[in-house]
Design brief:
The complex is a heterodimer of chains A (111) and B (113).
Chain A: E1 5-7, E2 10-13, E3 19-24, E4 31-38, E5 42-50, E6 53-56, E7 65-71, E8 74-79, E9 88-95, E10 100-102, E11 106-110
Parallel strand pairs in A: 2-11
Antiparallel strand pairs in A: 1-3, 3-8, 4-5, 4-9, 5-6, 7-8, 9-10, 9-11
Chain B: E1 4-5, E2 10-14, E3 19-25, E4 32-38, E5 45-51, E6 56-59, E7 62-67, E8 72-77, E9 86-93, E10 101-103, E11 107-112
Parallel strand pairs in B: 2-11
Antiparallel strand pairs in B: 1-3, 3-8, 4-5, 4-9, 6-7, 7-8, 9-10, 9-11
Chain lengths: 111, 113
Amino acid sequence: DAGVIQSPRHEVTEMGQEVTLRCKPISGHDYLFWYRQTMMRGLELLIYFNNNVPIDDSGMPEDRFSAKMPNASFSTLKIQPSEPRDSAVYFCASSLLTEAFFGQGTRLTVV
Amino acid sequence: DQQVKQNSPSLSVQEGRISILNCDYTNSMFDYFLWYKKYPAEGPTFLISISSIKDKNEDGRFTVFLNKSAKHLSLHIVPSQPGDSAVYFCAASVRNTGNQFYFGTGTSLTVIP
């Protein structure tokens, strides 16, 4: 398996624009997580899914953030409208029983 | 509220010496603990884990110690190598209530040749 695949690797957008981050988890994994990495909070869990169903979205910072998992092999994290304070590295991870496996992340810059 | 804390943002160690990275947690329900290593521009990669039924787990140069009464775990790297220079995250979960992982803020380790 190629591991968790995220796209794009880098995204630069203007404030107010919609941003969509994409993730393909490892085949067979039934948990999918979206994390945001910041200096202040480290790896902050935004939302996670089990069998494509959102389980806990309490980490989503505002209503501007939304996430979907239409099937077992694809998930999106959308920010609309984006703001400069959303600039961070966003990671997707998947797991089955034990540890989580991370993608390489999307570095988002909102100018 | 940060349930997993790494109070040392950075650590420098001479090559060949021991590196000790520390982590504290507040939730006594956590029963599974992990350490991840992260290089720049890459995602975190799993390093080693420990279940709450154990107090020590060893894998080569890496050993994780768990002190449940103190809600503290540590990662020992012996001997430290320059390739170990990375950011290390500790994480914790409550396995029978889902697979949610809580991460600390990370410790940046620099191993000086």
